Amino acid sequence: MRRSMLIGIVLLGCLVLSPLVSMAAQTSLYERSTLATVIAARGTAVQSTTSAGSPVNGFVMLAESVILLGKVESGAWWWAETSAGYGYIRASDVQPAGDITRLPEVGDDLAAVVLPPELPVDDATKYPILPELTDYSRTIWERGQKLGLRADVFTKVGDCLTSDKYKFLGRFGSDGYDLGEYAYLQEVVTYYQQTPPREGQPNSFWNESIAAYKGFNAASVLDPLWQMTALCPPEDSPLACEYRLTKPALAIIMFGANDINTLTPAQFDFYLRVVVHQTIDRGILPLLSTFPGNPRSDGRSHQFNQIVYQIARDYDVPIMNLWLALQPLPDHGRERDTVYMTSTPQTHVSYFTPEHLKYGYTMRNLVTLEALDLVWRELIHGD
Hints:
Elements: E1 8-11, E2 14-17, E3 34-38, E4 44-47, E5 56-60, E6 65-72, E7 77-82, E8 85-90, E9 94-96, E10 105-106, H1 135-146, E11 150-158, H2 160-163, H3 186-193, H4 238-246, E12 248-254, H5 259-262, H6 265-281, E13 285-289, H7 298-315, E14 319-320, H8 322-326, H9 360-381
Parallel strand pairs: 6-10, 11-12, 12-13, 13-14
Antiparallel strand pairs: 1-2, 3-6, 3-9, 4-5, 6-7, 7-8
Helix pairs in contact: 6-7
């Protein structure tokens, strides 16, 4: 097995190996769905069936996005996922953004969709630490190259756990790191050090992503109200703005820390799916990640990480299991009773020594560099 096909982490005298296992969907949900925008001034109701008098699950307002998943034979209704849950919406109330011919025909009384359970993603054979790159990963990548995306640029999408460049990846954009026994990662570090993603940002590691900001959740990164730069038109969301400016071939995406307190599981599922769908729309390969969890809400944390895994499988995109990589660490790599990851007092989060790898941020940096190395070797370098 090639070294980029597993992660070996020496922790407190233990070697943790995470083999890659195929978790790919049969056909990516992206190829069987499309985004749409509500155009009805009154919004649109999300119904349980298409029948008159059907129970209403909720409402979606004007200009909100929905994901169209199927079409009813009559042509009058779509089966969709929305911020109000799954259900039927009137076809006349929305404007599809993509090819509706790829949507499957569905019945008019589909059963309610059940979200994943509150179970930990703790089985490395089902939820490996490092991602698998399937044929569809290569399809997305090649599509992006034809669109002019830059193979040597990645970006970061997430909340405060991702936005702090001094703790997450930034130091690899300079000479302030020590790869230790992982010296083979120098090649991928050098590769991504070479290209400024936009003016004022020397490389992808150091880039202050507009799509990664403290307080963000999977909904706010899609909301133009949170896009606070003059570099993009006001109608751009933070996600759209970042993608417009940097033209990355890869996006590292992690949400959950804020979401478990601000979104329902159904809302988190919907908004993260929109993030993934919009990312693939632009030819950018999403690299998802489970989040460290909240010690005050273990059950909900487990469910949200299960949702992240289900989305990765449905869309057939790669995912890192950061949560599992953190479990052997003291306090599971988190500051006690918080969602924040631990780091040394000197914030030596880029020193891959046994002592520093006991800390959460250092472990996240290692797992992410291992994943970037896998992408580089299989999609770019051609190993």
